[in-house]
Amino acid sequence: MLTTTFEAGERSRGPDELIVEEPMSIRLDDTLVATTMRTPGHDFELAVGFCLTDGLLAGEPVVQCRYCGTGSAVESGFNIVSVDTGGRAPTPTPRLNPTTSSCGLCGSASLDELADRLEPLPPSDPFAVELLAAMPERVRSQQGLFDVTGAVHAAAAFDRDGTVLHVREDVGRHNAVDKVVGRLLLDGALPADDLGLYVSGRASFELVQKAWAAGFTNMVAVSAPTSLAVATARRANLVLAGFVRGSRVNIYAPERVP
């Protein structure tokens, strides 16, 4: 797309790369459960991760994931994904409103209801603070879409050695997390009880809840958490690090670091 740029008093016109944002409808066993604004790519991971973190699977395995189970994928623009459990998952309750790329919980009836379905995570050894501090730089080198557009969030799963296992980018921070969770679920790697989750922005309640649902024991955010995110992490027994900038790390959960 052409754009006009002003810099140091000079004017120029040239092409600019913009990130794509399109709606994607998610169906579970042929029931529409949500429509989210997302960056196309890793759509099956997004759909499966959403169903898992929203509690829709209820522990049932995914047997198939496909584009548009009700017609032609081409005709729907590859913007409808069907997740199939063979009818074993409970009949889902659709969200009331479309999910935007900035809010992963719009239309949910109750935040408490989402958290109440999860048991606190079992005790685990926290990751080294030095490793948590290093994650932004390690993930940043793998954010290809951000390099080109500057308009996407990133999420990543990493292990205790600091190895970055999966990086996903999306206009929606919650979508990026769901894509990572979906990849792990499809790989049979959940619960992620010995992995950490990195997010490139702030730590909101919805992201902490998704980390909790996937079984992550440590979470790292470049920016600050919200008060509800901290309360949720403490309830979950999830180590939550925020404002990870350079050598600085703020540990918000647990309440007291041993």
Features:
258 residues; Ubiquitin-like (UB roll); 6-stranded mixed β-sheet; alpha/beta; 4-stranded mixed β-sheet; Cytidine Deaminase, domain 2
Named CATH topology of the largest domain: Cytidine Deaminase, domain 2
Please count the beta strands (DSSP E, at least 2 residues each).
Answer: 12
Proportion in β-strands: 25-35%
Radius of gyration: 19 Å
The helix-and-strand class reads alpha/beta
The CATH homology group name of the largest domain: Cytidine Deaminase, domain 2
Task: Give the integer mean of the pLDDT values.
Answer: 86
Order of helices and strands: EEEEHEEHHHEEHEHEHEE
- Count of spatially separate domains: 2
CATH class of the largest domain: Alpha Beta
Main-sheet strand order equals: 8-7-9-10-11-12
What is the annotated CATH architecture of the largest domain? 3-Layer(aba) Sandwich
Report low-confidence residues grouped into runs of 5 or more: 106-110
**Quick one: overall form?**
globular
Counted by DSSP, the helix tally is 7
**Helix share of residues?**
25-40%
